[in-house]
Design a protein that fits this description.
- By secondary structure, this protein is mainly beta.
- The protein is 6% helix and 51% strand.
- The protein has one helix and 17 strands.
- Strands 1, 2, 3, 4, 5, 6, 7 and 8 form an eight-stranded mixed beta sheet that branches. A five-stranded antiparallel beta sheet has the order 13-12-15-10-17, covered by helices on one side.
Length: 295
């Protein structure tokens, strides 16, 4: 088997999966309904442009004061572009037709600010630009700063909700010493079956939740002879972060990656056929650090 061919084909599939399912603001769905915008839980949105003119809506709280919006677009091939609009709580425009375009594989960054007189809900619309029958693919990033508040993520079942407008941390009782941070608990590993052929290809979305080092342990448990699997890790732009990790028999391989921010990544698992003998088995991916299984 041509091992590099596996990675080329797998990464192409991974790129398609990201274009259709990547979630902005880590773990959030995108709303196409102007009347039901997605509440932001992050001051940054990262997403892909697929060459269409689809539009998405987000909601956050802003004001009083100066709100700054940064829109960046990077083309992956020829040209790519996105247009941004902001509306106040009465659907009146705050910013209109803010355009950023990447030309000939390039990038553009546009910064705009607006003064908001009172605290209110603001709706952000982002719309891709269609360039004929081809092109238009790339990535965009929206960053909010200044007089902005985003919704705290939902509290776990049975846990106390974070205070509105806060940073997600509950305030200690008056006079009480701050409680020490809880140690991260064990994380369930990812597993999957190998069918003894080189047709097995599985994808696992993961959310890197913040800066830090993530460690992966890849292992294979054969149920008959010669079970093998190849592993790779790519980011939201299909950039290879780890590759050529071949695990066979009862072996295991550990690798670490250091991230400087929260982001989505995907783990690609490919069955590797070894001659004419069977190679069925189970693969396992254990992980530690600031990472969780994607939703």
């Amino acid at each position: 088997m041509n091992y590099m061919r596996f990675y080329v084909s797998s990464l192409l599939i991974a790129a398609v999966l990201f274009c259709v399912s990547i979630s902005p603001a880590i773990g959030q769905e995108r709303s196409e309904d102007r009347d039901k915008p997605t509440p932001l839980t992050s001051t940054e949105i990262n997403d892909n442009l697929d060459g269409s003119s689809d539009q998405y809506f987000y909601k956050f709280s802003a004001g009083p004061g100066k709100l700054t919006v940064t829109l960046e677009v990077k083309a992956s091939g020829t040209n790519a572009g996105a247009m941004l609009d902001l509306f106040d709580s009465k659907s009146r425009p705050l910013l209109s037709d803010v355009l950023a375009q990447g030309v000939d594989g390039g990038a553009e960054r546009v910064v705009n600010s607006v003064q908001i007189s009172t605290k209110q809900d603001v709706v952000l619309k982002i719309k891709g630009i269609k360039y004929g029958d081809s092109g238009g693919t790339g990535t965009y990033r929206v960053a909010l700063s200044g007089a902005v508040n985003v919704a705290a993520p939902a509290a776990p079942a049975g846990g106390a909700a974070a205070p509105a407008g806060g940073n997600g941390a509950a305030a200690p009782a008056a006079g009480a010493a701050p409680a020490p941070a809880a140690a991260p608990g064990p994380k369930d590993p990812l597993t999957g079956e190998l069918d003894g052929t080189d047709r097995t290809t599985n994808f696992h979305k993961m959310n890197v939740t913040g800066p830090g080092t993530v460690t992966f342990n890849f292992s294979v448990k054969p149920t008959d002879k010669n079970a093998q699997a190849g592993f790779a890790v790519v980011d939201a732009n299909s950039k290879i972060l780890l590759q050529d990790i071949l695990v066979q028999g009862t072996d295991s391989v550990s690798r670490s990656l250091t991230f400087d921010k929260a982001q989505l990544i995907i783990i690609v698992v490919k069955g590797v056929k070894n001659g004419d003998t069977a190679g069925k088995g189970i693969y396992t991916i254990q992980f530690s650090g600031p990472i969780e299984v994607g939703r």
